[in-house]
Write a structure and sequence with these properties.
The protein contains 6 helices and 11 strands. The protein is of the alpha/beta class. It has a single domain, classed as Rossmann fold, CATH 3.40.50. Helix 3 crosses helix 4. The longest helix is centred in the C-terminal third of the chain and has 16 residues.
Length: 171
Amino acid sequence: MSKVAILLEDYYQVLEVWYPYLRLREDGIKPLFVGTGKGNYKSKEGYPAREDIAIDNVERGDFSGVIVPGGYAPDILRRYPKVNEFVKVMDGEGKLVASICHGGWVLVSSGILKGRTLTGFFAIKDDLIGAGAEYVDKEVVVDKNLITSRNPYDLTAFCTEIVKFLKEARK
């Protein structure tokens, strides 16, 4: 069974965490909440989530990929070198790296965007371009193992591409 890390920190965007979590479970993929070690986190609206494992205890070989949700959480997550290293290693191994909305901030700090094509929330467009990416305004963009979307309205297309990638990787 594939395991996918969903990164957590306070002020996460509730739909961008819980929709992928539930969608992956529907397809027999095991999502795990990976946090920075605090244990409990609250969304921008105060909705709680509890980490399954702290980033300090993650064995990257145990995961088929990582999802970086948006909200304000990515600006906190990117301050943790182990978070950035985990994303960088996942990308380097060709495993799933998926990001939606402001999640692109973690991709910037992970140093994986040079020469890549992606999307994200329009307010971080300049950050993505500054990190060497080509920005396009589409509901979902797939660049090899990198899957990105702009906002919660794009979640259906985002999760469809994530599940498709993970099923192909199992073959």
